[in-house]
Structures are given as C-alpha cells and as structure tokens.
Specification:
This protein is mainly alpha-helical and about 700 residues long. Helix content is about 55%, strand content about 5%. The strands form 2 sheets. It has a 4-stranded antiparallel sheet with strand order 4-5-6-7. The protein has a 3-stranded antiparallel sheet with strand order 1-3-2. α3 crosses α6, α6 (about 85-100) packs antiparallel against α7 and α30 crosses α31.
Length: about 700
Amino acid sequence: MASFKTSEDYAQFIAEYHQAVDKIVEFYTANVDDQENTTLVSENFKAFKQKIENSDDQDSHRYYQVKNVLEEIAHLLVQPNTPKNPLNNKLAQIYELADRIIYCADGAITDILRASSNLFAPSPDLLSNMQKIKEKIAVNTLRDFMVQHAINNNIHTFNAFWDHFHQELALPSSQDRFRNLDLATHQLVTHYRQKLTAALTPYRITYQLAQDHLDFFRRQLAADRVNYDQIEAKAAQLSLDIEDQAEGFKPGYRNLDLDALFIQNGDKYQLRQDPILLQIEMAKKFSKAKVQAAWLNWSIQHLNNEQGNTFQRIGDLFWQETDGELMLPTIKNIGNFIHQISFGQLMSLIEQARDEADQALLRKIDPQRLQGANRQQINLFFSKLGLNGVGAINYAVAHRYWFQSLDNNPLISAIFQLDGSSLANIPAMLLHKMTASELSQFVEKLGDEESIRYAIKNLDWFQQLDSNPLIPVLLRLSPDKLPLVSIDLLHHITDQQASLFFSQMGVKEGIAYATRNFEWFLEFKNNPLLPLLLTLPHEQLMRVSDMLFHQMSSQQASQVFSHWGINDSLHYIRNNFEWFQQLASNPFVPILTKLTDHQLARLSSSLWHFMTVTTLCDLFEKRNNPNAVAYINYYINGSSFQDNQAPQNRLNNFQNMVLKTLLLNIVIIKIYGMNNAITGQTINTPSRLFLL
C-alpha cells in the first residue's frame, strides 16, 4: 500500500476517485434547495476525500477497493429517472450515504455498496443483475427486521447479521472489523432467517428483475406497437441471457423466447404488461447456469397434482409445458399446489376466475395465503367469490378472526346485494370497519323498525361504533314511542340531536325521561332540555328541580331569570343556592344592564347579596358608569382613587341622587352582609363606612 501511494499511478487514481465523489455532490446540490442538507452532503464528502488520502494502510486499502463502486454510483445518478428509481430515491441514497460515510472505513464501505445496490439499473449481464436484486431484497428485509425488533440501527450491528448469511446468498461479506456480534443473538438470527426465507423466493427475485427489464424496453421503445428490427436494435443494449461458456450459453437477445416479452399481432409487437412469462424464462436460464448460491435452488422440478396435471416449478414459480408451448396454471388445474404457488401467481389466478366452478375453488383458499395482500387485492378476492355476494359472506363467517383483522371491509357491496330479511339476520361482525356513511346506508336498507331491533339484538357491537347511525331513525318515531327508547341506543347523540329528541317527546315526558336517566343526562355539555323547559308556564318552571338545569350557561340562566322576573329568581336562588354558585358568571348582569337607575333602586335589597364585588363592578362597567365602579372598589375592596380625589368629593360628583343613594345602600348592604351565610365573605376595612 505504501508503494502504491508513491507510484506514478497513484495521482491519477486519486484524481479519478475525487472526480467521482465530486460528481455525486454536484448532482445532489443541483437538485436540492435545502441549504442545511446540501452543506452536510458537501462537507461530509469533503471529509471523506481527506480520509481516502490520509488513512493508515489498512483503511486506505479498503477505501481503494470501492473506487469503482463510487464511479458506478456517479454514473447511475445521471441515468433517466424511472418509477422504480425516481429522483427522490437517488437524493435519499446520497443523503443517507453522506450521513454515514465519515465515521469509519468498515461502515463506509458497507454503505457505499448498499447505495450502489439501491440505485440498481439493469446491465447486460442477467446473472449479475439477479445477484444485485437478491442483495437489495436481503438488505431491505434486514433493515425492516431491525426496525420491527427495535434493534439499534447501527452499521456494525447490520453487518453482524449480514455476515451470518452472505455465504449462503453468494454475496460479499461486510469485511467489517467492528461488527457488533453481541446484538446478533442466535434467536434474532433465526428470526431473520425466517424473514429472509419468505422474502427471497424465485418469484420475487425474477419479478423485480423482469419488471426492470420491461421498464427498460418501455423507455426505449417510443411506440406502443413496433417492428421486430426496432426491438432487436434496442435489445443489443441489454442482453437477457447469461454469459456462461462452460454451460454453452452465448449472450444475446435472440436466445430468449420472444413471447416472454412481446405479444405479436400481425407484423407488429406489443410489450407485455404482465412480467410472468419473462420471469419463467429468466428462472429457466438460472436453472441451467452455475449460480453459486445454496440459498436458492433454481433447478426445475416436475410434479403431478391429485388431478393428474403435470407442472414444472422453480421454487414458488409454477408453469406447464406441452409440446414446447409454455402455459400458466389456472385455478381449475392447480389443485393442491395452490398452497405452494407464489402470492403473485395466486393473485393472477384469482383475477382470472370467471365461472361458478372457479369461484367454488376460490372459496377453498386458506386465508393465510392472502397475508400481505393490500386492500385492492383483498377487495378483488371477495368480489370473485360468487353466489351474488353470499359466497363472500360465507367465506368471512368461516374465517371470522382473519376477516376481523383486515383494515377495511371488503364485503360492503356483497352486503348491500342482500334482501331485507337476509340483511336483518347478518352477523354484526360482518359490518367490521364500516364507515359512518356505509352504516347509515345499512340502516336505511333495513328500515326503521328492523334497524332498531338489529341494534338491540347486537347491542355490544352497536355501542362500540364510533358514530350512531340510528339517531335519524329514532327521531322519526312518534312522540308516544320516544319515552320507551333505551338510552343504550342513544350513544354518541349530539347536544343538538338530544334537544330535538326532547322537543319531539314533549315537555312532560322529557322531564320524566331526563329524571329517569339522570346520569346519562348529566353527560351533556349543553343542557338539551332547557329550550323545552322555557316553554313551561311561570309557576311550573319555578317548580322544576335544579338538577334539570344541569350545565346551564349563564346566558341560558339569564333567559330563565328574565322569564321568572327578579323576585321569583331570587326566591329560586335561595332554595337552590349551590346550583347558583356553579354558574360561570352572574346571570343577573345582562338583565340589570338594561334597567334604568330608578328600576334598579326599586329592586329587592337581597339581590345585592348574590352579587360579588367583581360582579357589581362588571355591572356598572356595562352600564358605562366608571365613577360607580371606582366608588365600589374604594369603599368595599379598599382600592384608592387613581386621580387622588378625596372620597367625599368623588361621592359629591354624582349628580344623580337615585344612583348616589343606590350606591350607598349597596355598600352598606355588602359591608354588613359580608359575614352572612349566603356570601361567606369578610371585609377588611369596615372603618371606611364612617366616611359615608
């Protein structure tokens, strides 16, 4: 290593290395506006270039090994963006690499290799492409596994797990000298092996590989339908064969079955949308090549099912060949191999199901085969179960625990195909994950009486709903039936709906219903009975228990007091003083604000006992009389006059003798009444009374 650093080739080597790094940084800064992120990427790669030159011999050797990988990354970045490798993925890979690259040589090398794998683009060598796809799947599976098990996402921990499997995968080891072996326990390694086994299958590897190659042709061939010579010209850039002279292979597109890529229509060719035939072609080639990976067995097996049908398979990839013609399995002939076929092929079988015989076979599928299916795929499966929706319903009932684990309800359309009588007897568990709108449709289709019976029969389910679809039905009941409604059916009723509920019931029955279900009534934030109570005659309203004035706002209390009048309101307060104290503000203020001074002066003196000094000040502020506020504050609260006027002069400023007399009476009442049982307050400066 020391001799290489002093050789003539070293300067050019380092210059090319730096050039590759600079291209990566330039690509990132040209496509990202975030100054903080561009600074991090630029500075970290700058530090990385210094490490390349200034590290000890052992680290330098490791850095030099990945020069060509960084050059490959720089090349991949400027390739056209594709749905599989969009610009945001390229930028994310650069940022993640920059964030890790400066820590240590072992970690940096691993991350450089991972970035290259994640920026994969098809090359002319099918076998090396397969290895890259395999590595990418394994890397992503390990990352997901570490997140799932809350394992420290450290490159040295990652490498500890990776090196347990690299030989089986025929992939390079991390060569990490600082692997965190303590965290890679036997139990976790075993669990990761299970995840890897499920992820690395012939179907999944060839699916991604075939899709990448189809995407290549899709970008290269501008027209939808092309001539053969156009295909041949583009295919020269991308061989779909394996160069392996020992096995007698020669690179070249023509060695691949044309039907795997294109559908021929006359003298024109159209690119296939489904990659399955290309997957099989690729897998067959891997079966003949010297693929050094004990993990996957690419050899072709010939199998017969219980129906006597012969299939060929590579792992979870199945097909048939008759007289040299390749055919895909169908739901009718796959038989018991349906439990071994890949998930992708299974979904194709489901999609192609057409007649009742197909539907009957689909209904026998173990739902565990649908693990990992997305919402669209689950909906497709249920739509194919036949019997006008009954097949889907029976399947859900037979596999209820699996059905209830779904994050949506694929039975909606099937349920709404049922007639009224069938709908009324449907198990409530089949309404799992229904939206509020769908539940309302369900109730409407059942009808008013039947929907009430259904809710009562399935009360536990009904009370767990996030909304109440039955409210509109209950509000349509006749007034004589409303008092019979159980509060169990009124969960999630809003204050506004409850007010309408009481209004339609009538005041007498409404009072009885609220009294009978008082704990439920107390749960309302706004009293839904109050509008109805205000319709009562004066004498009857006075006899209403203060319990039914629960959650009455001060504004509503003002309405009640206005209805009663001041004297009757005072009488009610004396009898229900605890309720009065719970009001947020004194309900008399809005009433008294509208009265004249003469009307105030004629009011019962006991009124002022129920008004705190703060309330009195609030009243006179609303009456636009600041002198009265200052006077009350001075004589009761012990405040001083801000303008330094003598209090007796301030009193003399009142030209209105009615107001002057009223204020004197209020002060006297408050001073002498501070210790009474009603207010329970004391005054600090009683001597000021004599200033009057």
